[in-house]
Amino acid sequence: MYQILLVSSISILLLSVFFSVITSRNLIRPLLSLEDGIKQISIGNWENLKINVRDPIEIQFLSKSFNSMQESLRKKTLEHEASNFELKKANTDLISTQRQLVHSEKMASIGQLAAGVAHEINNPTAFVSTNLHTMVEYLSVYKNLFQQMEELITCIENKDVEEKSLTVINKIESMKEEENFPFILDDAFQLLEESIDGANRIKKIVLDLRNFARPESHDARLANINTAIEDALRLTSNELKYKCEIVKELGNLPDIFCRIDQITQVFVNLFVNAAHAIKEHGNITIKSWIETDSIFISVCDTGTGIDKENLDKLFDPFFTTKDVGEGTGLGLAISYGIIEKHGGTIKAESTPGKGSCFHIILPQKGNSI
Ligand SMILES: Nc1ncnc2c1ncn2[C@@H]1O[C@H](COP(=O)(O)OP(=O)(O)OP(=O)(O)O)[C@@H](O)[C@H]1O
Ligand SMILES: [Mg+2]
How is the chain split into domains, by residue range? Predict the structure, then answer.
């Protein structure tokens, strides 16, 4: 009896172990395949992932929900990828439009400067041309003298009759009386030096203008902000020199990584604006200095100043108080964009009737522009 009991309880135990192993295998296998599905999703391999579980019924439901979740995830991801692509394209378009805008504004300011630049070129061209005409006259005098000297040399070589050499000598003497040879010689050198200087001035103006006009000509590089100030002053010199006293207090600045042609564009606009604001005669004071890893530049004028209600609108695109054809109102908006792209700030302050100041701060280690 005891033995029968022992055998039957062992059999029951074995049977229950057998069934529990079967049941747990049936339960664990689908759970493991679900876990694998989740892992695949987490590492991004989910595109054609489907889980097929038939039993038990609860896990089957779970796997169905998993599959529908995977399908909606796939759809959502595709939608996100499409909108991401659209966004990237819109961003590229925006960057190219902004570049075109910066370039158009630059072209517009060249238009504004054109009359002045033409004058700047005309001046040296006029005196170089006058000098060259005078040089032609001087050279013909020396050519005559040279001819007489050659004749004299021939007379001496041929041991010619004294009379002939005397005639030539007399001619030279009378030429010496008519023409002031030492003066001609000195003046010729002076005229040539002046003309070389004038030609170099023209060359520099054309070079400055060509550099400035080139669209996005330079990649960002190490450059000095004071150079941009000097370049802009040269480009605008004709707008400024008749009515503005330029006071420069440029500190010793380190080179910074920047798009120097765009920074020049900012200063061209600030100087032209200042010159426009000065009605008869005034000062433009330009200062630059470095302080705790930032470069500071201020451009102050003694012009008309800016009314309080306009101060907030200055950097808005198309805000202008100038007549049609005189200004588009884009100068400061573009300047703001340029400075912001360099990781800096530009602000204006003004006392109406007394003048205005524009303050720029640029980080020494700027953005990746
Ligand atoms: N230094 C200044 N003094 C007085 N007003 C100024 C000064 N700078 C700018 N402004 C005012 O701000 C306005 C906008 O300047 P902004 O440079 O953006 O455009 P604009 O000079 O009118 O035209 P643009 O620069 O496109 O040729 C000017 O029309 C002017 O009214
Ligand atoms: Mg302007």
Answer: 219-369
Residue minimizing CA distance to atom 13 of ligand 1: 320
Atom of ligand 1 nearest to the CA of 358: 1
Query: pLDDT digits over 7-19, tens only?
Result: 777 888 888 777 7
Each residue's pLDDT tens digit, 294-336:
999 999 999 999 999 999 999 998 899 988 777 888 899 989 9
Highest mean pLDDT: which range of 34-38, 240-244, 274-278, 363-367: 274-278
Tell me: pLDDT of 217 over 60.
Answer: no
Three-state secondary structure readout of the chain:
CHHHHHHHHHHHHHHHHHHHHHHHHHHHHHHHHHHHHHHHHHCCCCCCCCCCCCCCHHHHHHHHHHHHHHHHHHHHHHHHHHHHHHHHHHHHHHHHHHHHHHHHHHHHHHHHHHHHHHHHHHHHHHHHHHHHHHHHHHHHHHHHHHHHHHHHHHHHHCCCCHHHHHHHHHHHHHHHHHCCHHHHHHHHHHHHHHHHHHHHHHHHHHHHHHHHHCCCCCCCEEECHHHHHHHHHHHCHHHHCCCEEEEEEECCCCCEEECHHHHHHHHHHHHHHHHHHCCCCEEEEEEEEEECCEEEEEEEECCCCCCHHHHCCCCCCCCCCCCCCCCCCCHHHHHHHHHHHCCCEEEEEEECCCEEEEEEEEECCCCCC
Q: Residue 336 Cα, ligand 1 centroid: separation in angstroms?
A: 13
Tell me which ligand sits closest to the C-alpha of residue 328.
Answer: 1
The CATH number fitting domain 219-369, selected from 3.30.565.10, 3.60.60.10, 2.20.25.90, 3.30.1330.30? 3.30.565.10
